[in-house]
Design goal:
Number of strands: 2
Strand content: under 5%
Shape: globular
Largest sheet: 2 strands, antiparallel
Number of domains: 1
Order of helices and strands: HHHEEHHHHHHHHHH
Strand order of the largest sheet: 1-2
């Protein structure tokens, strides 16, 4: 029963952390943009503007709920809910730290250590497309529908190359479990990380992660100058907030997945020596902190790219996905298989 309570607490903590990171990612994005553009950024709500996300959240909640008369009202409400739920569900299989002992049993800092963890992530991410498509179609607005079609086309196209890059990781690891993938990168100097084994696969996965999160330079579905506001043109209040929050939750989870697959997850150099000095719980806390530092670096990288690189045209986006990334991911998979066979 204690383990069940621990798991429930872990779910609640992850839920709050995901929302907290999403909220303060909006603040961080505006601060990073201000720094790059030589501005101050938010500096009114609280010291250094740190209460700005709370002010924005209250503003979203207090805004008037508007549902267009000609929309499909049930699907109009279901769209942002599906997008937000699928964004939050992906964190369930991520190992956030090493196992801790509870009631004499080793319990991983992971909600569900299923043996097909990466397949679960890809499946849930694929479901997120439905939330966007349903929202755009149910709005009964041609601009929202165009944005939804763009988003679904983009996400489906880049999921193929992303899946191929993950297959190469599965071949080297020999498991579909994200926990096994993280454990397999354990090394004294950190040289066992998959970034050194699969540099091309990492580059492909990183680019596809930008496209999956609809982040610049792949933010075609939300191109304000062309499509007004994209698939959420007709949305207001917290339904709009769910769509915006889901994007930042996806960015947070994408950073966590990149860290798990290519940068050793919660592993760090000389962790064996550190674990011998520290107790089990302090060591687990340190590992979680290291993991989150890696995640924060990739979140910053997402933001840095947004305010550095201009948006692609849609034909350029499709050409990159189908004519460049997909062939490269297939070649990377074949090269990985060949090396494994030659070394066996």
């Amino acid at each position: 029963m204690t383990i069940l309570v621990f798991k429930i607490l872990l779910v609640l903590v992850l839920f709050l952390i995901s929302l907290g990171v999403a909220a303060y990612s909006t603040y961080s994005e505006r601060k990073v943009a201000a720094f790059i553009q030589d501005r101050l950024g938010p500096n009114r709500a609280g010291p250094f503007g740190i209460l700005q996300p709370i002010a924005d959240g209250i503003k979203m909640i207090m805004k008037e709920e508007i549902i267009p008369l000609t929309s499909n009202k049930i699907l109009f409400v279901a769209g942002p809910a599906i997008t937000m739920i699928t964004a939050l569900m992906t964190s369930a299989v991520i190992p956030w730290g090493p196992s801790v002992t509870i009631d004499g049993m080793k319990v991983p800092l992971q909600v569900a250590d299923i043996n097909i963890g990466i397949l679960y992530v890809m499946g849930v991410v694929s479901l997120g497309v439905y939330g966007i498509m349903i929202g755009g179609w149910a709005s009964n607005n041609k601009y929202a529908l165009l944005g939804a079609v763009r988003a679904s086309t983009q996400m489906i196209s880049y999921e193929l190359a992303m899946g191929m890059s993950i297959i190469a990781i599965i071949m080297t690891t020999g498991s579909l479990s994200i926990g096994d993938m993280v454990t397999g990168q354990h090394g004294t100097w950190g040289m066992g990380w998959n970034i050194f084994v699969q540099p091309l696969g990492f580059l492909i996965f990183l680019i596809c992660a930008f496209a999956e999160c609809n982040r610049t330079p792949f933010d075609l579905p939300e191109s304000e100058t062309e499509l007004v506001g994209g698939y959420h043109t007709e949305y207001s209040s917290m339904k709009l907030g769910f769509y915006l929050f889901a994007e930042y939750v996806n960015m947070f989870i994408s950073s966590a997945i990149i860290t798990c697959l290519y940068f050793g997850g919660y592993h760090f150099p000389f962790m064996d020596k550190v674990s011998a000095i520290m107790g089990e719980v302090p060591f687990a806390i340190l590992c979680v902190m290291v993991f989150f530092l890696k995640i924060l670096f990739f979140i910053f990288f997402f933001m840095w790219v947004r305010w550095t690189i201009p948006r692609f045209r849609f034909d350029q986006l499709m050409n990159l996905g189908w004519k460049v990334l997909l062939p490269l991911s297939v070649l990377n998979m074949l090269a990985t298989g060949t090396i494994i066979v030659l070394n066996s």
